[in-house]
């Protein structure tokens, strides 16, 4: 196999790993599940761990397992990459956009609405159920898993704190950085669809 084919296969494996992790969010994915998803690329366990280590060092994923049994979880930079809002780093080749434009805009609007609802509830934490009902009232229909996926994304961006995960009673509060985003004190981060601030000429 020539060098170009080797590089193309490596890029395909890395991109497939990222896509599999995105599909599973907010849960980490056991290495055995990843191996099954990579069957068409004939990826060995040793090769998988090598690529997971590489992607982790690129800040695209975090291992929630151990060095023997990997359970990687996609980080916000990886999500942004698959949504087409970030340029791919060297070593990934051309990253296939994992979501269509309608889903991309939907995700970004959901994140903004979550921040706004949590801001309204300050200083009290807002429960997952309250968030889900508020989004439903805004015609943003989503599952509880999708809501948790976006809560984890926003927490990893440093915009909210999520509590009660271990008790399965999720609630969220804004961080100071999250307040600044909602109050238009700072630029909106990649991945959040904040409307223009017309009250300040924005």
Structure in words:
It is a single chain. This protein is mainly α and 202 residues long. It folds into two domains: 3-82, Winged helix-like DNA-binding domain superfamily/Winged helix DNA-binding domain (Arc Repressor Mutant, subunit A, Orthogonal Bundle), CATH 1.10.10.10; 101-200, Orthogonal Bundle (Arc Repressor Mutant, subunit A), CATH 1.10.10.10. The chain is 50% helix and 8% strand. It contains eight helices and five strands. It has helices at 3-24, 31-37, 45-57, 76-82, 101-121, 128-137, 144-156, 176-182; strands spanning 61-63, 72-74, 126-127, 160-163, 171-174. Strands 3-5-4 form a three-stranded antiparallel sheet. The chain has a two-stranded antiparallel sheet with strand order 1-2. Strand 4 (160-163) and strand 5 (171-174) form a beta hairpin. It starts with a helix and ends in a 20-residue tail after the last helix.
Concise account of the structure shown:
Helices cover 50% and strands 8% of the residues.
């Amino acid at each position: 196999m020539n060098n170009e084919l080797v590089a193309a296969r490596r890029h395909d494996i890395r991109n497939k790993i990222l896509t599999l992790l995105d599909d599973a969010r907010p849960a980490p994915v056991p290495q055995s599940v990843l191996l099954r998803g990579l069957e068409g690329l004939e990826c060995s366990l040793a090769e998988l761990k090598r690529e997971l280590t590489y992607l982790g060092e690129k800040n695209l994923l975090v291992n929630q397992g151990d060095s023997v049994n990997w359970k990687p979880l996609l980080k916000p930079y990886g999500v942004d990459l698959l949504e087409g809002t970030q340029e791919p780093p060297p070593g990934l080749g051309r990253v296939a956009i994992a979501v269509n434009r309608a889903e991309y805009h939907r995700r970004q609007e959901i994140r903004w609405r979550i921040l706004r609802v949590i801001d309204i509830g300050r200083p009290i934490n807002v429960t997952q159920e309250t968030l889900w009902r508020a989004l439903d009232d805004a015609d943003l229909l989503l599952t509880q898993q999708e809501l948790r996926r976006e809560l984890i994304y926003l927490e990893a961006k440093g915009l909210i704190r999520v509590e009660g995960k271990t008790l399965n009673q999720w609630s969220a509060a804004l961080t100071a950085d999250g307040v600044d985003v909602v109050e238009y004190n700072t630029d909106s981060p990649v991945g959040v669809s904040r409307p223009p601030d017309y009250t300040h000429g924005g």
